[in-house]
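Q:
Just now I want nothing more than another pair of eyes on a protein record. Here is the record:
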Amino acid sequence: MKRPLLLLVLALSVLLTGCRVTITPGTVSFNARFGIELSPVIQLFEPTRGSGATYVVGDSIAFRILTDRSGYITLSAIDPDGTVYVFARNIFVRGGETTTISGVDARTIFTLQPPRGLHRVRAAFTPSQTNTATFSYQSVRGDDNWTRIIVSEVRPYDVRDIAETRFFLE
């Protein structure tokens, strides 16, 4: 009985030696999922019907976001088929206020189109606008590539955050 426990502890020790965790109270924290330090800026990010809500093709969708400081949000998504795309870039949000993002500007709304299934959406926060010419999400497929391009885009900023939500399209 002691030997399996010892082996488990040894295996966990080996796994954890490869992790680097930096803790600076209140400013940044290491996020293993994204592999970079993130600032806890985004306090709320969800569709207006709530995370995990169900929509039908043709419905409009909007997202509520609350940040603790003013800055810019880029929204990207991955479809059930693995296609990654940006659908709103450099949307200004005022810190301390819940903002509803329903389109890229006041004249447009987000309207849902197939494919049907689970859609995941990420909000990337930066204190200033990102360079749209430098980062292209065109032809990006898969979760790992999605993560890699978002991290590349936010890495140059000393304050950055990434949050994810989801919805289901019937």
Summary: The first strand starts at residue 23 and ends at 24. The first helix runs from residue 2 to 17. The chain is about 15% helix and 40% strand. Residues 63 and 107 are 16 Å apart (CA to CA).
